UniProtKB/TrEMBL annotation:
Residues 269-307 are annotated as: Disordered. Gene3D superfamilies: alpha/beta hydrolase. Pfam families: Hydrolase_4. Residues 70-175 form the Serine aminopeptidase S33 domain. Transmembrane segments: none annotated. This is Serine aminopeptidase S33 domain-containing protein. Residues 273-307 have a biased composition (Basic and acidic residues). SUPFAM superfamilies: alpha/beta-Hydrolases.
């Protein structure tokens, strides 16, 4: 019956753009993988990543020189990398972070079919790549989940005790709760974020529009209330499900949050002493405190990269961006492989009636704002 649930979940929640908004091409001179219709940037890598479920997903990694945080972005529904590409570039620049975005199985040019458990394998593959290929560490990674992307984001965050932070953008309490005001979690529900959010130990920022017609504002509000380490939420008055990036407050508040979590690693580490293995992990981050006592090296390099914000982010006016230093690399580390008991267990599945088809459109936004 497991296949019944997978089929139900696919019909219930997943709307990959058809046809995909982009193609992958290989540059004849360099052999590099490129996203069609976008010019090659020296600071952007296009990757194919294998997952533990046998699929191959497409990911984009954007470098920012001297960045101290890496954002792992799980996008919303009815979108793929081709539609998110320019936003990824903009976020990396304005937030001064490295950023990895990826397509779920069955989205864009990723292979396989979309399902709840495939998205869990997808985000794990992206996370593994960050650690093994780019030297990112758990303490420096911020997970960002938009709408349906809040599902894989919280599943992974609940299993990583030393994450720097989590951002939830128009998140869902669970798939079923988007359509019906149920009071409990059912076996056939998917993305049970309401049950996982209390397990997240790092600071959490929740962003939601008060006029969201797809995922009601109450979803974001309730998830924020259940957070262990709350950060000041951003409730965008009049904001809908797919336009929050257009509000000037969106970027300002997100930037403020990232600066805050970058400046307080020692406080969060001491607050989580009881977590298994945390004392050992803290030793690896103590170098920040040592350096700050003397020359404050961690802060000064960031000041040297400061520059006037020439782009009006909320108007999405894109201009040419300086070529970034592609030689900036960090030490490599091994992937943490332990999985906690929050993984869903499979039970015998029942079939679901056709009324879920009627509710498909309400699970996530169908029209992605085109930028440019």
């Amino acid at each position: 019956m497991g296949g019944v649930t997978s089929s139900m979940a696919a019909k219930f929640a997943f709307f990959p753009p058809s046809p995909p908004s982009y193609k992958l091409i290989t540059d004849g001179a360099t052999g590099l993988l490129l996203v069609d219709h976008f010019p090659h940037r020296e600071n952007v890598d296009v990757l194919r990543l294998p997952t533990r479920r046998g699929n191959e997903i497409v990911a984009v990694y954007v470098r920012y020189p001297m960045a101290t945080s890496t954002l792992l972005y799980s996008h919303g529904n009815a979108a793929d990398i081709g539609q998110m590409y320019e936003l990824f570039i903009e976020l990396s620049i304005h937030l001064r972070v490295n950023l990895m975005g990826y397509d779920y199985s069955g989205y864009g040019q990723s292979t396989g079919k979309p399902s709840e458990h495939s998205t869990y394998a997808d985000i794990e593959a992206a996370y593994k790549c960050l650690e093994e290929n780019y030297g990112a560490r758990q303490e420096n990674i911020i997970l960002y989940g938009q709408s349906v992307g809040s599902g894989p984001t919280l599943d992974l965050a609940a299993r990583l005790p030393r994450l720097r932070a989590v951002v939830l953008h128009s998140p869902i309490l669970s798939g079923l709760r988007v359509m019906y005001p149920v009071k409990r979690s059912y076996w056939f529900d998917i993305y049970k974020n309401i049950d996982k959010i209390p397990l997240v130990k790092c600071p959490v920022l929740v962003i939601h529009g008060t006029s969201d017609e797809v995922v009601d504002f109450s979803h974001g509000k309730q998830l924020w209330e259940l957070c262990k380490e709350k950060y000041e939420p951003l409730w965008l008055k009049g904001g809908n499900h797919c336009d929050l990036e257009l509000f000037p407050e969106y970027l300002r508040h997100l930037k403020k949050f990232i600066i805050s979590v970058e400046k307080s690693p020692s406080r969060r580490s001491s607050a989580r002493k009881s977590v298994d293995g945390m004392e050992q992990a803290r030793k690896s981050t103590d170098r920040y405190d040592v350096s700050r006592k003397s020359t404050d090296r961690r802060e000064k390099p960031r000041k040297s990269t400061d520059r006037p914000e020439k782009l009006k982010f909320h108007e999405y006016k894109f201009t040419k961006i300086e070529k970034l230093d592609s030689k900036f690399k960090l030490p490599f580390e091994q992937l943490e492989r332990s999985r906690r008991s929050v993984e869903y267990y499979e039970k015998p599945r029942m079939s679901i009636d056709h009324q879920l088809e009627k509710g498909r459109k309400s699970v996530d936004w169908l029209d992605r704002i085109r930028v440019g």
